[in-house]
Specification:
The chain is of the alpha/beta class. The chain has 2 domains: about 190 residues, Rossmann fold (3-Layer(aba) Sandwich); about 160 residues, Rossmann fold (3-Layer(aba) Sandwich), CATH 3.40.50.2000. The chain contains 13 helices and 13 strands.
Length: about 350
């Protein structure tokens, strides 16, 4: 079977990119089609035969793709997939809008319906002036997005949250197949905890809400280590107290050390899934998460972690004040993480493809 993969843009590293590497393990010969490719920001993609759209040659497109949002529909519609039996789009934006002929099946592995058009619209367009100016563009993109959403033959959602959004915004049914952990759980022998909490996240505050963890730990004078970087890093550093340490981006091996020794992972945002929560569980560590989104699929309250009810500093502080990591069984956390192994992902995907495609 001739397979191709499609992704919105290849210019960063995160949970979605780990999904692409998992698909590469299953379909090693599949090329990766995308709007723009920045090798300097996406060294992980060197294993792929990357095929870019016409936007690749536009000024600043690989570093500021937002400038070309109105051209993204055309970029993906311009690809030709006649040579393939199956195309898998991994997308939170325009990649689902590819056009395939009847003999080519299209499976959309949906990370979320386009966030800035739907579930995250109010976060992205808080400024009334910006919202007014963007109205024509948003109207056009919403109209195209709804049409494009009908093109895939089948949908897979990454969580219950995303499944409900696909139904709400696109009127499509979907099957949940959780993103895979790309680490070997068997090698993750638990270690004694040290006295710090951990955040692993891109440092952007649209929905990551890392500021909640920084403010809560600073006010309670609790040690917090933050892994990751992003556009809001300088602002977040300015609000951090002396107990907060920024570690930047780490290799997987370096990150594993911090997972093994933390008291717990703090997950303050509302995520579509939240692979770092599953990673922490794989290392036998509990998770403190905002009670929404993918966290509801991953964390078993009272057994493998705790929830805070409101996206506020005071709500998170209430949980941190009473948190005792000794209450949580490392073995239970690791058992919970087995639902998200690569082997389980491959088995679920194979079953779905055999059944539907």
């Amino acid at each position: 079977m001739r397979v191709a993969l499609v992704y919105d843009r290849v210019n960063k590293w995160g949970g979605a990119e780990r999904v692409l590497l998992a698909l590469h393990r299953i379909f090693p010969q599949a090329p990766l089609f995308t709007s723009v490719y920045n090798p300097g920001k996406a060294s992980w993609a060197k294993v792929f035969d990357v095929k870019t759209s016409f936007l690749q040659n536009f000024p600043s497109a690989t570093t500021a793709h937002e400038l070309y949002a109105l051209l993204m529909p055309l970029a993906f519609e311009s690809f030709n997939f006649d040579a393939y039996d199956l195309v898998i789009s991994v997308t939170s934006e325009a990649a689902k809008g590819i056009i395939t002929k009847p003999q080519t099946k299209h499976l959309c592995y949906c990370l979320t319906p386009t966030r800035y058009l739907w579930s995250g619209y109010n976060d992205y367009f808080k400024n009334p002036a910006v919202r007014l100016l963007a109205r024509p563009a948003v109207a056009y993109l919403r109209s195209w997005d709804k049409v494009a959403a009908q093109r895939p033959d089948e949908y897979v959602a990454i969580s219950s949250e995303v499944q409900s959004r696909i139904k709400k915004y696109y009127g499509r049914e979907s099957k949940i197949i959780y993103p895979p952990l790309m680490i070997d759980i068997q090698d993750n022998k638990p270690e004694a905890s040290e006295d710090y909490f951990l955040v692993v996240s891109r440092l952007t505050n649209f929905y990551k809400k890392v500021d909640l963890a920084i403010k809560a730990c600073s006010q309670l004078q609790l040690p917090l280590k933050i892994v990751g970087d992003g556009a809001d890093q300088k602002n977040l550093q300015r609000m951090a107290g002396p107990t907060v340490e920024f570690l930047g981006n780490l290799t997987d091996d370096e990150l594993a050390v911090y997972y093994k020794k933390c008291r717990a992972l703090i997950f303050p945002g509302r995520e579509d899934f939240g692979l770092t929560m599953a990673e922490a569980q794989a290392f036998g560590k509990p998770v403190i998460a905002f009670k929404a989104g993918g966290a509801l699929d991953i964390v078993e309250e009272g057994l493998t972690g705790e929830f805070f009810a409101e996206p506020t500093v005071s709500s998170l502080k209430g949980v941190l004040k009473s948190f005792d990591n000794k209450r949580y069984n490392m073995k239970l956390c690791r058992e919970n993480a087995k639902r998200f192994t690569f082997m389980q992902f491959e088995r679920n995907l194979d079953s779905f493809l055999n059944q539907k495609i």
